[in-house]
Amino acid sequence: MAEEVNLFLAQIEGILEKVPDEVGGKFKFAEFTVSAEISAKGGLVLMGTGVEAAGKGGLTFKFERK
Question: Which residues sit opposite 33 in a β-bridge?
Answer without folding.
Answer: 62
